[in-house]
Design brief:
The chain contains twelve helices and 15 strands. The protein has 534 residues and is an alpha+beta fold. The strands form four sheets. It has a six-stranded antiparallel β-sheet. Strands 8-10-11-15-14 form a five-stranded mixed β-sheet. A two-stranded antiparallel sheet has the order 7-9. Residues 220-282 form the HAMP domain. It catalyses: ATP + protein L-histidine = ADP + protein N-phospho-L-histidine.
Length: 534
């Protein structure tokens, strides 16, 4: 890890903010699901068709009834003309104000509510209306005025009679300047039409309810394969495809891959995609396996010559013979570089073993004592730093590999020592949080470059390859970071079922390790052991 000062700036708030999805406005703007769109579309289409059918039916019935009423109107007009032409029957007297109109209304066969009026020029001479009892009633001036609006062309027209409702009226010529008007009520026609409209509305409501229920079930049945494909895609998206040996056996069932349907075509295409991805993952795993074997074999083979180099260098130094300054310096460099190379080989070998899924030891480990020892060693190797600890009073015991867990603590403390300037305060914390043991290493150094924080735990990652610190080796050799320390930390921690994270800003960097307390279900799995490196 390389820590360097970074400038922090707060991004300016956006001038436009999106509405919250939970707000009413956000709910209105939220897109409808396919199921809802299909259901709403079906209901809207059903309502539209039902409305059109209802309107056409009511209009057709209304027109038919009006035509029948017009026939009755012509018959009533003919009877009225006959009544007017026959004069008053012996012993009968028209009602007051009805005059000749009363004669037209008293003709047998005239229906109840019939209105008759005799028009001379532009004036109604007499008018009357048949009551429910069969008598003739007078007509109000407003009703007379309404009758005068009917065109005198011999065709029936609808007219609004004040206080009586809508009527159908017809004007027939009786002679020069004399005409007779007859009007029949439209109440029966309008009542029948309204009754039909009500029946259609009730039937439509029941139809809509049935359409909603049946449509919902039909849409659910039609979209069920699509939902299964969606659930399968969600499960595949949750698989750790970026690491480990992945057995991508998920497939869309054959019942959902019928290419004769759109959803079936989607399922078949999804299966082909999964097969392609599985082939790519298999090829990637085979390549990674070869690389792991090569690294393991190479690391194992390098251990012997490196040990021989270190041994001969130490033997030469202990021979007691005085060496020239240049030779002594070169010998010191050889020893220092061989030590660094040996450490690098050991780290590579450890990572290769973890990549292959080799299980670690699972024994009770006093993490508190281990952390205290590591902190004591750090104080000796880094006296120019200020070291402190914040530990729980009760010892924290976890199940794991003691030597590997010690490596985790040592690497984190060494990381804080190597990549921070002298005088930096480094605090190690260890406490229990629920079912986890939480180890923290915090320093007030310059911080980690934000550009490398996301890849800090990958292999051979260094924020600034030009930064290194002398490590006091003989000959003044400078020990450069190999980029494997934090990668090893993550590999070991994840092999113990834990996690490691970093949060950093100038003046405050903290590494946090969480390891489950107690017997883990599985120390190292094929999918976890190689998750440290991609």
């Amino acid at each position: 890890m390389t820590q360097a000062p970074v400038s922090a700036s707060s991004p300016a708030p956006d001038s436009e903010t999106e509405p919250d999805a939970g707000s009413p406005l956000g709910a209105l703007r939220a897109p409808l699901t396919l199921r809802r769109r299909l259901l709403l579309g079906t209901i809207a289409l059903f309502v539209l068709v039902t409305t059109i059918i209802g309107l056409v039916s009511v209009a057709a019935l209304h027109g038919s009834l009006v035509e029948r009423l017009d026939v009755q109107l012509h018959s009533a007009a003919d009877r009225g003309r006959i009544g007017i032409g026959s004069g008053l029957p012996p012993g009968s007297t028209p009602p007051d104000g009805s005059g000749e109109a009363g004669l037209a209304l008293q003709v047998p066969g005239q229906p109840v509510g019939t209105i008759g009026a005799v028009i001379l020029g532009d004036t109604i001479e007499s008018a009357g209306r048949i009551s429910e009892s069969g008598g003739v009633l007078g007509v109000t001036p407003e009703q007379r005025a309404a009758l005068l609006t009917v065109p005198a062309d011999g065709n029936p027209y609808s007219v609004d009679m004040p206080g009586l409702g809508n009527y159908r009226a017809i004007v027939s010529e009786q002679g020069p300047g004399l005409s007779f008007i007859v009007a029949l009520p439209l109440a029966s026609v309008e009542g029948t039409s309204a009754q039909l409209a009500l029946i259609i509305a009730i039937v439509a409501l029941f139809g809509i309810a049935i359409a909603v229920i049946a449509g919902t079930r039909l849409i659910d049945a039609s979209l069920a394969p699509l939902e299964r494909v969606t659930h399968l895609a969600r499960r595949v998206s949750e698989l750790p495809l970026d690491r480990g040996e992945v057995a991508l056996a998920e497939r869309v069932p054959t019942t959902d891959t019928d290419v004769r349907t759109e959803v079936g075509q989607l399922g078949a295409a999804f299966n082909r995609m999964l097969g392609h991805v599985a082939s790519a993952l298999t090829a990637r795993e085979a390549s990674e396996r070869k690389v792991r074997h090569f690294v393991a074999d190479a690391s194992h083979e390098l251990r012997t010559p490196l040990a021989a180099i270190r041994g001969y260098a130490e033997l030469t130094r202990r021979s007691g013979e005085a060496l020239p300054p240049d030779a002594a310096h070169a010998l010191g460099r050889i020893e220092a570089e061989s030590k660094r190379m040996s450490a690098l080989v050991e780290d590579l070998l450890l990572l290769a073993r973890l990549d292959e899924g080799r299980a670690l030891e699972s024994l009770p480990v006093d993490l508190t004592a281990l952390a205290v020892d590591a902190l004591g060693d750090a104080q000796v190797t880094g006296p120019d730093h200020e070291w402190s600890a914040a530990l729980d009073e009760e010892p924290i015991v976890v199940n794991g590999d003691a030597s590997r867990l010690q490596m985790v603590v040592v690497n984190l403390l060494a990381n804080a020592r190597v990549h921070t300037p002298p005088g930096t305060n480094v605090e190690m914390g260890l406490h229990k949080a629920g079912s986890d043991a939480v180890l923290t290493v915090r320093d007030d150094g310059p911080g980690v470059d934000p550009l490398v924080q996301g890849t800090l735990f990958e292999r051979f990652v260094r924020g600034d390859s030009s930064r290194f610190r002398a490590d006091g080796g003989d000959g003044g050799a400078a020990v450069q970071s190999t980029g494997l320390g934090l990668a090893t930390v993550r590999a070991v921690v994840e092999a113990h079922g834990g996690t490691v994270t970093v949060q950093s800003e100038p003046g405050d960097t903290v590494f946090t390790v969480r390891i489950p307390i107690g017997q883990p279900e599985e120390r190292v799995s094929r999918g976890e052991g190689n998750s440290a490196v991609h």
